[in-house]
Specification:
Rossmann fold, seven-stranded parallel β-sheet
């Protein structure tokens, strides 16, 4: 629950080694935050990445929980483990995802299974588990790192875009379903973000960085927004792109 000056006390990051997730923590962790949980596959890396936060905020109780984002059946238990560590969850940031850049899906279609499990099925299960817990508390915010890739799926990243389109649509519907419960969902739609995951890829127009995405996300968490685009100009660009006829869309070099 927020303290007397409106600061969320218990924050959880799913995808504890995500560069964007870590950048968001740098923005939202402030005096008044009591407990921080990083849920990740690689506990050692996650611990190393939180060293700066630990030094800047020595009073914060930092926990680490191991999980496999692609193991959808285990994610309700992971949420229960987090709750057993810290109690109520005020803000849950979901920054798990696979891009599978460079994989030939025609030659190796089975590679799509893990990506779909991480980006869609596992995340959907996780969001329902978090929402159930937060409904019992009577408050809470789930922050989903989505992508503009799901706004209109391109042939260049059809599989990734499809998983993002699916989870983005689900998240908006879940937020609608949660109205009146004290629980809400914030969907963050970044464009191309320069991270280790996108290293070596050609930058798209209006590329951004983790710190810029984090700044917009932190401001949106403190507001009543349901969707935030990073950068904001992408909202208007995709308003046009989504309205294009299919015959025109297919001629674009996307």
């Amino acid at each position: 629950m927020k303290n007397g000056v409106g600061v969320a006390q218990n924050i959880v990051l799913f995808g504890g080694t995500s560069e964007i997730g870590q950048a968001i923590l740098d923005k939202v962790v402030k005096p008044g935050v009591s407990r921080l949980v990083l849920v990740s596959r690689d506990i050692d890396t996650s611990t190393s990445m939180t060293q700066k936060i630990a030094e800047a905020h020595p009073d914060i109780d930092i926990h680490h929980v191991r999980f496999d984002a692609g193991d959808a059946a285990s994610l309700s238990h992971v949420v229960s483990e987090v709750v057993s560590e810290i109690g109520d969850i005020d803000v849950a940031i979901i920054a798990q995802g696979l891009l599978n850049e460079g994989v030939d899906n025609y030659a190796n279609p089975e590679a799509l299974i893990e990506m779909a499990n991480v980006n869609f099925t596992g995340t959907m299960v996780l969001m329902y588990a978090l929402a159930a817990r937060m409904k019992s508390q009577g408050y809470g915010k789930i922050v989903l790192l989505s992508s503009v890739a799901g706004a209109r799926v391109r042939k260049a990243n059809a599989a990734y875009g499809a998983t993002k389109a699916g989870i983005d649509g689900f998240a908006l519907a879940l937020d609608h379903d949660l109205q009146g419960t004290g629980v809400s969902v914030l969907v963050v739609r970044p464009g191309f973000v320069t991270t280790k995951m996108t290293q070596g890829m050609k930058k798209a127009p209006f590329s951004t960085d983790p710190q810029s995405v984090a700044d917009l996300t932190a401001k949106a968490i403190a507001s009543n927004k349901t969707v935030v685009w990073a950068p904001g100009i992408l909202q208007w660009m995709f308003l046009v792109l989504k309205a294009l006829p299919q015959s025109v869309w297919r001629r674009l070099p996307l």
